[in-house]
Amino acid sequence: MKPSKAVVILKDNLWSNNPIFIQILGICSTLAVTNNLNNTLVMTVGVALTTAFSSMTLSALKGLIPRKVRMIVQVVVISFYVILIDILLRAYLPEASRQLGPYVGLIITNCIIMGRAEAFAQANPPFLSFWDGLTSGLGYMVVLMAIAAVRELLGFGTLFGLRVMPAGFVPWTIMIMAPSAFFLVAMVMWWAKSMQAERQAAGKEAKK
Amino acid sequence: MKKDSMLYVVLFTFVVCAVFTLVLAIANEGTKDLVAANAEFATQSAVLGALGVPFDGKADAAARFAGAVSPGPDGPYRSWSARVDGADYVAVEQAGPGLWGTITVILAATPDGERVRGVRVVSQNETPGLGGRVAEPWFIGQYEGERSPGGRVGMRAGAESSGSADPDKENGRVDGVSGATRTSQSFAAIVDAALARVKEIGGER
Q: What confidence tier does B201 reach under pLDDT thresholds 50, 70, 90?
């Protein structure tokens, strides 16, 4: 049985075309927010929802948008959703909003959102675009949460703010600072790329 | 109308912007009171925290705040005067430069500025895990009941710091965060500025 289009998109966005380790998009936020799981979760959920809804909206509007102002309209729609998320966070999750500070507004600069709008929503129906945006956000979330787990565990000795390391544990300060995200992202890329290369090689062997 | 005609492009852009902005304006208007209430609670909990008044939840905080605290004279920063356990205190909001950004604290002290009641960090943007630790209870707790002779609390930062909390409340000195010398020094300057204002406001009465 051939997998349906939705399943293919899911697999693509989570693994074979992951926004972080294959497309290398949205790296700046990876460096900035991943030193703590709570913030990472709120931020990545925000990115996933923004990508999903803006892709859907842009896909629904695509027949009406004149090509000349395509990018302008994309930016308007994306910033609309980001500001909406910011307003909702400030009203219902003031603590998270305070901790994230400027990073919520910076969701708008996340290249994944514009990338999906350009690469997918332009040529696909709204619901599929919504799914594509959501799964892209998930692919982003999975990688960031993994990095944040390592950084928070070694940098603070906690997970989601709960102490897990023994009392005598000396925190690795470097893990809290941005450079550690460079090492960790690079390691994730290395691992994922070599896994994919191995599988490809194995697939070719099997065909012979 | 042709999709690429000037008129269509202008009209379309105008309509899109108008519709999306309208929705945002409605969302903003609808949550305005909630956001204001959150900000109010954040201030009240910081003032009560600095005054050492325990509270349980939003409603309790509002009731205790109304019972013990009254707003002080108008100025560039907010201030409050309060009566807790039969003693008078003055609380002030004070902001100053940290290492990366502005640190805002609320400090409560006796009206003569000679003994700190408590400090709470309202906002800071220091290095997480280093300078950011100034908001942690072990650091901020050093100020609770600390003597501040002449309206100053000394800061042992850098190599002088023991790296852990200074338990002596009478020596007019606290220990800085190790690895965050500059933030600790900035914090001490903000506390001293806040104490000077407490003295000013406390002396007027």
A: confident
Determine which helix (DSSP H) or strand (DSSP E) holds B109, and give its type and residue range: strand B102-109
Sign of CA dihedral B101, B102, B108, B113: positive
Using pLDDT thresholds of 50, 70 and 90, give the confidence band for residue B1.
low
Stretch B97-104: mean pLDDT, rounded?
90
SS3 (DSSP) at B124: coil
Q: Binning pLDDT at 50, 70 and 90, where does residue B15 land? A: very high
Measured at the CA of B192, the angle between CA B189 and CA B193, to 5 degrees, comes to 85
CB contact under 8 A, A84 and B23: yes
> Would you call B59 an interface residue with chain A, using a CB distance cutoff of 8 Å?
no
Domain count, chain B: 1
Residues comprising chain B, all counted: 205
Is A91 at the interface with chain B, CB within 8 A?
yes
Cβ <8 Å between A176 and B23: no
Quote the tokens at residue B150.
Answer: 């002449």
Q: Within a domain: residue B178?
A: yes
CB of B165 within 8 Å of a chain A CB? The answer is no
Tell me the nearest-neighbour CA distance from A6 into chain B, angstroms. 29
φ and ψ at A163, to 5 degrees?
A: -70, 125
Instruction: Give me the pLDDT at residue B205, please.
Output: 56
Domain boundaries, chain A: 5-207
Cβ proximity of B92 and B106 under 8 Å:
yes
User: Residues A64-101: pLDDT tens digits?
Assistant: 888 888 888 999 999 999 999 989 888 888 887 877 77
Q: Whole-model pTM?
A: 0.78
Contacts of A66 in chain B (CB under 8 A): 3-4, 8-9, 12
What residues of B are in contact with residue A173 (Cβ under 8 Å)?
129-130, 179
The per-residue pLDDT for A82 is: 92
Domain that holds residue B97: 71-204
- B153 part of a folded domain: yes
Q: Which of A73, A91, A101 sits opposite B16 (nearest CB)?
A: A73
- Domain presence at residue B193: yes
